[in-house]
TrEMBL record:
Record keywords: Metal-binding, Zinc
Keyword Lyase appears in the UniProt entry: no
MF terms (GO), sorted A to Z: carbonate dehydratase activity; zinc ion binding
Protein name per its UniProtKB record: carbonic anhydrase
Enzyme Commission number: 4.2.1.1
Family: Belongs to the beta-class carbonic anhydrase family.
Comment on bound cofactor: Binds 1 zinc ion per subunit.
Residues noted as binding Zn(2+) in the record, renumbered to the chain: C39, D41, H97, C100
Domain of life according to the entry: Bacteria
Catalytic reactions on record: hydrogencarbonate + H(+) = CO2 + H2O
Pfam families given in the database record: Pro_CA (PF00484)
Required cofactor(s): Zn(2+)
CDD domains: beta_CA_cladeD (cd03379)
């Protein structure tokens, strides 16, 4: 076997044989009892955990393009709900980042790339005739802060999410600075005050 896959599998054999996995042993339950939704951006792979003091086993990490919830009953929301009910997460952190590629995705240009890579135009038309709004599905966001607020709101108002803190932050992908957008503790306090009136 050659190529990158061959290199990865060769390294993996050595990794397992030399028991280099031992420092990473942990349980499936998040020690800090939080679930983090963030972007799949390569700059965040090590930077985000480092700037939040997150170690292996501390959190449930969900990564997706743009790090936002686009639909209330899609895979991202399902993962958040499973992390809460099955894995003991007690808080949710939605963490977007500045200079995100999803803020500049152009659905029309993306469709051109589909065709250039061999997807037939007929396939795209069939999807659209079947009710798939490809432009909406591919659309990112214009402002990362608004995107984070929107995801936090969707999670907070989801009928299957219990009353837990849902925080919103934006990370600088160069320095790791976190800017607070939504303080989930403040919302809980406001909700408690409103309920007492």
């Amino acid at each position: 076997m050659s190529g990158l896959l061959g290199d990865i599998l060769e390294f993996n054999r050595s990794f397992v044989e030399q028991k280099k996995y031992e420092p990473y042993l942990t349980s499936k339950f998040p020690e800090k009892k939080i679930v983090v939704l963030t972007c799949m951006d390569t700059r965040l792979v090590e930077l985000l955990p480092a700037c939040m003091n997150i170690k292996n086993g501390d959190v449930k990490m969900i990564k997706a393009a743009g790090g936002f919830v686009s639909t209330p009953f899609g895979g991202i929301m399902r993962s958040i709900i499973v992390a809460i009910y099955e894995l003991g997460a007690e808080e949710v952190y939605v963490i977007g980042h500045y200079d995100c590629g999803m803020s500049s995705v152009n659905p029309e240009k993306m469709k051109d790339k589909f065709v250039a890579r061999g997807v037939k135009s007929d396939t795209l038309q069939t999807l659209e005739y079947s009710g798939v709004d490809i432009n909406r599905w591919l659309k990112g966001f214009n402002d990362v802060t608004d995107s984070v607020k929107g995801s936090v709101s969707l999670i907070n108002h989801h009928p299957l999410v219990p009353d837990i803190p849902v925080h919103g932050l934006v990370i600088d992908p160069v320095t790791g600075r976190l800017d607070l957008v939504v303080d989930g503790y403040a919302k809980k306090t406001e909700d408690s005050a409103s309920a007492g009136e």
